[in-house]
Amino acid sequence: MADTAKSKSGGARGNGGRRRSRKDTAPTIASEQPATLLDYYRRMLLIRRFEERTAQAYTQARIGGYCHLNLGEEATIVGLMTALHERDYLFTNYREHGYAVAKGISARGVMAELYGRSTGVSKGWGGSMHMFDTEVRLLGGYGIVGGQLPLATGAALAVSYRGGDEVVMCQMGDGTTNIGAFHESLNIASLWDLPIVFVVINNYTGMGTTVERASAEPELYKRGSAYRVEGVRADGRDVLAVRDAATDLTERARSEQRPFLLETMSYRMKGHSVVDPAKYRTKEEAEEARSNDPVAKFESELEAAGVLTEDAKKEIQDSVRAEVNDAAEFAENSPHPDVSTLFDYTYATPVANESRRMPADPVFAE
Amino acid sequence: MADTAKSKSGGARGNGGRRRSRKDTAPTIASEQPATLLDYYRRMLLIRRFEERTAQAYTQARIGGYCHLNLGEEATIVGLMTALHERDYLFTNYREHGYAVAKGISARGVMAELYGRSTGVSKGWGGSMHMFDTEVRLLGGYGIVGGQLPLATGAALAVSYRGGDEVVMCQMGDGTTNIGAFHESLNIASLWDLPIVFVVINNYTGMGTTVERASAEPELYKRGSAYRVEGVRADGRDVLAVRDAATDLTERARSEQRPFLLETMSYRMKGHSVVDPAKYRTKEEAEEARSNDPVAKFESELEAAGVLTEDAKKEIQDSVRAEVNDAAEFAENSPHPDVSTLFDYTYATPVANESRRMPADPVFAE
Amino acid sequence: MSVITYRQALRDTLRAEMHRDENVFAMGEEIGVFEGSYKITEGLLKEFGERRVRDTPIAEEGFVGAAIGASMLGLRPVVEVMTINFSLLALDQIVNHAAKIYGMFGGQNSVPMVIRTPGGGGQQLGATHSQNIELYYSFVPGLKVIAPSTPADAAAMLRAAIRDNDPVLLLENLGLYNSKGEVPDDDDSVAEIGRAAVTREGNDITIIGYSRMAMIASQVAENLADEGINAEVIDLRSLRPLDRETIVESVSKTGSAVVAEDDWLTYGIGAEIAATIQEGAFDWLDAPVRRVAMAEVPLPYAKPLETAALPSAESLTTAVHETLRAVGRRVG
Amino acid sequence: MSVITYRQALRDTLRAEMHRDENVFAMGEEIGVFEGSYKITEGLLKEFGERRVRDTPIAEEGFVGAAIGASMLGLRPVVEVMTINFSLLALDQIVNHAAKIYGMFGGQNSVPMVIRTPGGGGQQLGATHSQNIELYYSFVPGLKVIAPSTPADAAAMLRAAIRDNDPVLLLENLGLYNSKGEVPDDDDSVAEIGRAAVTREGNDITIIGYSRMAMIASQVAENLADEGINAEVIDLRSLRPLDRETIVESVSKTGSAVVAEDDWLTYGIGAEIAATIQEGAFDWLDAPVRRVAMAEVPLPYAKPLETAALPSAESLTTAVHETLRAVGRRVG
Ligand SMILES: Cc1ncc(C[n+]2csc(CCOP(=O)(O)OP(=O)(O)O)c2C)c(N)n1
Ligand SMILES: Cc1ncc(C[n+]2csc(CCOP(=O)(O)OP(=O)(O)O)c2C)c(N)n1
Ligand SMILES: [Mg+2]
Ligand SMILES: [Mg+2]
After folding, report:
1. Pick from A65, A117, A147: CB nearest D126
2. C136 CB less than 6 Å from ligand 2?
3. I need a surface site. Which of A110, A153, A154, B236 has the fewest CB within 10 A?
4. Model pLDDT for residues A79-100, shown as the tens digit of each residue
């Protein structure tokens, strides 16, 4: 309930959209294993470079459709994915390239999907918004705002029905908390005691509509109160804060068999999608974003703490760049799906009289 | 927000579904004008007798379709309608016969609608679930659970858009608080500061599903917290408590131009609809309902207070019975809509090529 | 063989499938404690308990979507949507999710779920509760839509739907629940989705219907026989996929056809049937394909208006007579 | 006359109507600060302010329903639903409320609102963002559905929709927003809803399309002219009501027809067109009515698959050639 909801570092947001993280309550770099920190740094940097390369490929028309990037959400993603076990399930919205990579899909598989190639993780059928991999248990990438919530709730129902010990994580954006599916899903998850953590990536806007102009209760983690779902807020630009909050809630979901709501506060560093110049943003906002770039900040913190040496930094940057280049090359050189496969995925169980007409064909083939 | 929500008489419900009203905090009979009290009594009794007659007519097949009665909700309805001004708008669900009468539609108009006659308030096109009268500003009677919420919110938007001082009241059942439209409507109403009071008639069940088995936060008035909408709970079987809570909120909605949420605690005295034997109810529940019959209770309270004399009681009961009989006769003797009117209400603006085909007609009339 | 109602056939089959496969479970509004708005699930909560017979909140989008998600992990939910009118609230989950998940992700994950829901007017339920909108599902690739018209088909088709790995919408009808028919005892046969049935052979004209109108079509055909008119009757049974061959084969023989449908005429199911016939049996068609359907209005509550607006044995008979006249045959 | 884009025509008209009538206002997701996902409402927030240009939360059911409710009190909301795919979430409000309120309550209260929404595939948006589901609205009595294919029609039809007292869905198309055409300057003419237009006269065959496919149909007809094929082109313009007379009159003259539609074939809009033609022009029809439509799959993202699945000038031309051959005419 709202009154029991604990506010982790991140705190409330001022109307200008600035936010300060109360470092005193946050976990410290000093108390972490250097290797762990470097691993986080590497994974955050991979997402950053991957998305930059994606933007480039999009402007070069190697990628089509809509293309939403995770720039500015790297710490959130790595923190969340660190909290999940391999057996845990993940459902996300369409802004999921980074999640796909961080959950364990190869950069090649994700980039090839963006290029629409048959080597893509969804065989080129899904594209940017629809990454899916049964193996790593990322059960989609969904483009309909809120569409993933009932599905994720159902996945948690299946886990509970079977008495399994997996947890489902359901990611969504701030604007998504205003749609009916949010209400119906949280109510059902709480009513049926399902092991699921709903994560709201509060990046301060929908497309251009701010949280304050879309949500009558802008402190989104408090919205769990209408379902007796405990809500927590964390600083989404602090990988350690996100990791700890997410680990706490996923493990409680697992042991208590209850749903939880986690809100992470971050900032979208570019437009809503690659084509959006984000003219509606003020200079101050853009400046605030730059000066709080989660990757740059973590990098300098690690350097200051002596964890990230010049050599280590160079090694990591080179290997990340190499991985991204390799992914792009792989995608570029992968085959396009063959038109003969057009009717391969309409039904899982073959059925009589299924239509396999091409646009110019008559209804009755000669 | 939940923590600021004041709980008026009614209090929290025990798991058995029993509820006690804390009379100490409730307004007292002594402090009311006898004439006022007798008027409430008369109107409550009219709803009671009207619904009993409706049930009878339904079993005699004079009424078709679904038929949901207000038995047990008489105090709630009279309390709510007393709080509204004539110019205020009302939207309800399908359990609305009593509201229609209490908002000012003649018993004749409502009964004729139930009989499906052209003299019915909706000309026989709506039936039990779809009472509507532009004059008295009852803007429907809706059979889709939750369907009235966005509509009522929009009506409040129109009032606000024009700077009017009307208030919109939107009635719904407890089970309706679990559907997406509830979430989307309360959020929009709060976000846009609309003058609307959402009223949840908590009669303890949906059809047979109890509040506890349907709503993860069973104290429904607290659900406003997710939208910063103040919630209040009142004893729905106490006409004075409902009147005062509703008057307070409607006037605040008018002056503050804000939405509010009112939950009234009552009990459905019969099945979900006339055809439902309500086998799923326990003896205790049925007994509790009978012993707390709002009409009987109010009657004995007025008698004890010396407000309701034997003569007055007889006069009121006779006139109510007469009014109901007159309504039934009127309905019985009213004409059925003529088949020639079948295509009269598809469009308000006439349009070329509109289909007026009867089932046996060819597409192209000779 | 025993003679049971359509309702009983559905209940017996659901019950048997739940015994057969632990992954099969039922969910929907008021199916447990209330035992179902139309009592299809009567007794199931007592027998299987709350884990497998779940009363849901009133949240069509939420619980239908939850069923889809549960099926993605291999469960086989059988969801009851109280009437097809309410399914509009779950349409996004059904059309944009259930129907898309298998294809959109390159065939990685199937969605083995069933949605049971009744359509049907004629109960004086008014404009929002009397619609026949199976079209909304029949139009969508990725979904399978079946519409049994007899107790035997209800059983064999529900069995097929539950065992199929794709999302299947099984269309029921308020007007069929109490209809009776022979059903083989402890049968395990599975109907083939995508196949229509010639339920009556004849040479004079083809009458095509589905769900309640397939039943009406058979009755009409019997009466026509007394007039010496020998009608062939096709029960579509499957709306998606649509069995065009069976339709065209019949009309190529009879030379004329009338479609009987409970929905609105313009853009209704019958439009595709007529379009299919004119394309597939063009050279054999002796008269235009006529369609008997609901008048295109929000269905009024008042009985005389409702009755006039709905297709019936009478209106179907009229259309058959006029069609036969058009092919130059003398009729009553 | 000035040559402007379809987008500009919509914007100019909406702007002019808002100046003309204080009751007209715009609402929808991201139409204000963001100036519209497809920039139809660019500049309107600055000009009219937040009262009349409302950014809504992401809540299609809620804000479309709120527009319906506001219209019940006499306002004339023009709602933008970002793409028709998302309208599924508001379908209950549109079909069970907007379309029913006038009739269900005996004609007491009209619903003068407009829903503007684009359909269209071909942008590699994948299975859930590329659908053409205008059928869902065209099927429903109580709604009016119009689909302009030119800037001039976009202006005259939006004007008509705003001034009409019934709920009108105006179908736009992602593929048309940048198309250009002549539009009369400060025009106040109002298109008549329910009328199709013969956009090109011809005697050899009738090509019928709407929205983007009406534009393609005209292009195809021009190319066919070079081959000496004189095609008549009909732009349906109004899907509900449907102007059957214009269609049948044309086919009675040409003797054959091909329907071009962007949606799926089975049960699609074209089915009704073909059914109408076979019933209304039976004796004049020399060949079956062919339909060119989308392949029946969840539309894949990959370009080669998407391109193959969508109808095009090429596929339409092929169908026209084959139809003419069927009527015994020698073609390229
Ligand atoms: C039901 C639905 N409505 C509208 C859209 C269009 N749309 C795509 S993303 C978006 C904004 C979502 O904002 P948020 O939930 O905060 O996620 P973010 O993009 O910020 O990650 C909108 C309105 C959609 N995809 N689905
Ligand atoms: C969207 C939708 N789903 C289901 C139904 C069927 N139905 C009618 S009434 C009802 C129960 C509603 O309960 P509640 O909101 O508490 O109102 P009450 O009947 O108790 O007054 C249900 C499920 C419906 N009419 N609409
Ligand atoms: Mg956001
Ligand atoms: Mg209730």
Report:
1. A65
2. no
3. A110
4. 999 999 999 999 999 999 999 9
Asked if residue B60 is part of any domain, the answer here is yes
Question: CB of B144 within 8 A of CB of C60?
Answer: no
Query: Could you give the number of structural domains in chain B?
Result: 1
Ligand 4 center to B267 CA (angstroms): 8
Q: Which ligand is nearest to the CA of B17?
A: 4
Q: Determine the CATH number of domain D197-326.
A: 3.40.50.920
A-C CB pairs within 8 A amount to: 177
HSE, CB side, 13 Å, CA atoms: give it for residue C73. Answer: 27
Furthest C-alpha separation in chain B? 76
Q: Which atom of ligand 2 is nearest to the CA of B268?
A: 20
Identify the residue whose tokens are 């009268």.
Answer: B133
The whole-angstrom distance between residue D250's C-alpha and the CA centroid of its chain comes to: 21
- How many whole angstroms separate alpha carbon C255 and alpha carbon C243? 18
3-state SS class at C269: helix
With beta carbons under 8 A apart, name residues in chain A contacting D55.
Answer: 209, 213-214
Distance in Å, alpha carbon of A350 to nearest chain C alpha carbon: 9
Q: Could you state, in order of their start, the residue ranges of all structural domains in chain C?
A: 2-183, 197-326
**What is the average pLDDT across C167-191?**
96
CA nearest neighbour of D323 among A360, C262, A290, B358: A360
3-state secondary structure of A107: helix
Query: Which atom of ligand 2 is found nearest the CA of B145?
Result: 26
Helix B34-59 and helix B107-114, axial crossing angle in degrees, nearest 10: 20
Residues of C in contact with A364 (CB under 8 A): 244, 248, 279-280
Query: What is the end-to-end Cα distance of chain D in Å, rounded?
Result: 39
ipTM (interface pTM): 0.97
* Dist. CA B308–CA B45, nearest whole Å: 13
Task: Name which of A193, A239, A212, A198 is nearest A91 in CA terms.
Answer: A198
Nearest to C9, CA basis, from C165, C122, C172: C172
Do the domain assignments include residue A56?
A: yes
User: How many CA atoms lie less than 13 Å away from C246 in the CB half-sphere?
Assistant: 24
Q: Please say whether the dihedral angle defined by the alpha carbons of residues A185, A190, A192 and A193, taken in this order, is positive or negative.
A: positive
Q: Is residue B345 part of a domain?
A: no
What Rg value do the Cα atoms of chain D yield, rounded? 20
pLDDT over 70, % of chain C? 100
pLDDT reported for residue D331:
85
Active site residues of D: 60, 129
Phi and psi of B133, rounded to 5°?
-150, 110
* CATH H-level, domain D2-183: superfamily: Thiamin diphosphate (ThDP)-binding fold, Pyr/PP domains (3.40.50.970)
Q: Which domain holds residue A256?
A: 18-332
What is the best residue among A70, A145, A211, A281 to mutate for testing ligand 1's pocket, by most ligand atoms within 8 Å of CB?
A145
State if residue C64 touches ligand 2 by the CB under 6 angstroms criterion: no
Residue A13 in contact with ligand 1 by CB distance below 6 A: no
> What average pLDDT is seen over chain C?
97
Q: Is residue A155 part of a domain?
A: yes
Q: Is A238 in the pocket of ligand 1 (CB under 6 A)?
A: no
- Span of A185-194, A277-286, A295-304, D236-245 with lowest mean pLDDT: A277-286
Rounded to the nearest angstrom, the minimum Cα separation between A52 and chain D is 21
CATH code at position A327: 3.40.50.970
Question: What is the pLDDT at residue A2?
Answer: 32
Q: Where are the beta strands (DSSP E) in chain A?
A: 6-7, 89-93, 138-142, 168-173, 196-202, 231-235, 260-265
